[in-house]
C-alpha cells in the first residue's frame, strides 16, 4: 500500500487458517518479533505470487505492512520448504507437532531467535539429515522446554546427590532426577536407564549444534521418549492434537 510503512522479515509458518474465499491467516514465527498473525490475501488462488510461502512449515522472507493490530502480506520469497518432510507423511506429521509445540511456548511480539533456530534445526534434521523421528521427538521436546524456562535438573539425584543414581527416574512434576530407592516428591516419576539418562544429559547440557548426534537402542529410546513426553505434559498442562495424529500414524506403521 502506498504511504504505508513496510517491514521485511523472515518467518516460518507455524499454522495456516483458511478465511473468506481465497485468503489465509498465517501464524509466523520470527526471530525479531516472535509470533505474528498475518493476513495473506488471495493466498489460496493458484496464481498468487506468494502461495508457496503461505503453507505450514514454509520458511520464507516476507514483506509486510501493518494496519491496526494486523499484519498483511505484500510479498513473499520462499527460502526453504523442507521437501524431505513433504515426501514422508510420518515426518511431516512430526513437523506439524514441533510447530504446534513451539507456538505454545512462544509469545507474540517478543524476540524468539533461539526458539526459531531450534525449530528450523529440528525440521532440517527430519528433512535433510533423515534423522529417526522417534529420536528427534524427545530431543526436540526436552531442549524446547529448556529454552522456554522448564529445564530439568539432571546432574544428580535431588535427594541423595549421587551423580550416577541407581535406577534413575525423572520426576516429571518437579523436573528433577531421583534414585529409584530415594523417596520424596510424591509425584509421577518415569524410569530411565544409564543410556537414556546419558542421552537426556546430552540434550539438556550439551552443545545445541549436536543435539541429535546420539544413538540409543530401542528400549532406552522408548524410556527417554516416555519421560520426555510425560515431563512436557506435566509442565505445559495441555495436550496437542498434532501429537495425537503423529501417534496414530506410528501405531499404523508398527501394526
Structure description:
The chain has 255 residues and is α+β, with helices and mostly antiparallel strands. It is built from seven helices and nine strands, in the order βββββααααββββααα. The chain has helices at residues 83-86, 89-104, 113-127, 133-147, 194-205, 218-236, 241-254, and strands spanning 6-19, 23-30, 34-40, 59-67, 70-80, 153-157, 169-171, 176-178, 189-191. The strands form two sheets. It has a five-stranded mixed barrel with strand order 1-2-3-5-4. The longest helix has 19 residues, at 218-236. The chain is elongated, with a radius of gyration of 20 Å. The N and C termini lie far apart (54 Å).
Q: What amount of the residues lies in strands?
A: 15-25%
Q: Can you tell me the residue ranges where pLDDT is under 50 for at least 5 consecutive residues?
A: none
The coarse overall form would be elongated
Please estimate the helix content. 25-40%
Whole-number mean pLDDT: 93
Topology pattern, helix = H, strand = E: EEEEEHHHHEEEEHHH
Query: What summary fits the major beta sheet?
Result: 5 strands, mixed, barrel
Number of strands: 9
Instruction: Give the structural class.
Output: alpha+beta
Q: What value does the Rg take, in angstroms? A: 20 Å
Q: In whole angstroms, how far apart are the ends?
A: 54 Å
| Strand ordering within the main sheet | 1-2-3-5-4
Helix segment tally: 7
Amino acid at each position: 500500500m502506498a504511504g504505508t510503512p513496510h517491514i521485511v522479515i523472515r518467518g516460518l509458518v507455524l499454522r495456516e487458517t483458511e478465511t473468506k474465499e481465497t485468503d489465509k491467516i498465517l501464524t509466523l514465527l520470527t526471530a525479531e518479533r516472535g509470533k505474528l498473525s498475518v493476513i495473506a490475501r488471495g493466498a489460496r488462488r493458484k496464481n498468487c505470487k506468494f502461495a508457496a510461502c503461505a503453507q505450514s512449515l514454509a520458511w520464507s522472507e516476507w514483506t509486510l505492512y501493518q494496519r491496526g493490530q494486523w499484519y498483511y502480506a505484500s510479498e513473499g520469497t520462499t527460502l526453504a520448504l523442507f521437501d524431505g518432510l513433504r515426501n514422508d507423511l510420518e515426518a511431516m506429521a512430526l513437523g506439524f507437532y514441533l510447530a504446534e509445540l513451539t507456538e505454545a511456548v512462544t509469545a507474540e511480539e517478543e524476540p524468539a531467535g533461539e526458539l526459531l533456530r531450534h525449530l528450523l534445526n529440528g525440521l532440517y534434521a527430519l528433512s535433510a539429515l533423515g534423522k529417526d523421528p522417534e529420536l528427534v521427538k524427545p530431543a526436540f521436546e526436552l531442549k524446547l522446554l529448556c529454552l522456554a524456562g522448564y529445564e530439568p535438573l539432571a546432574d544428580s539425584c535431588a535427594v541423595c546427590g549421587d551423580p550416577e543414581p541407581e535406577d534413575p527416574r525423572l520426576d516429571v512434576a518437579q523436573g528433577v532426577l531421583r534414585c529409584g530407592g530415594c523417596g520424596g516428591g510424591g509425584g509421577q516419576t518415569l524410569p530411565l536407564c544409564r543410556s537414556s539418562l546419558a542421552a537426556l544429559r546430552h540434550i539438556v547440557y550439551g552443545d545445541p549444534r549436536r543435539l541429535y548426534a546420539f544413538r540409543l537402542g530401542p528400549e532406552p529410546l522408548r524410556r527417554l521418549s516416555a519421560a520426555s513426553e510425560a515431563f512436557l505434559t506435566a509442565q505445559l498442562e495441555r495436550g496437542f492434537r498434532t501429537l495425537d495424529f503423529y501417534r496414530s500414524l506410528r501405531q499404523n506403521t508398527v501394526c
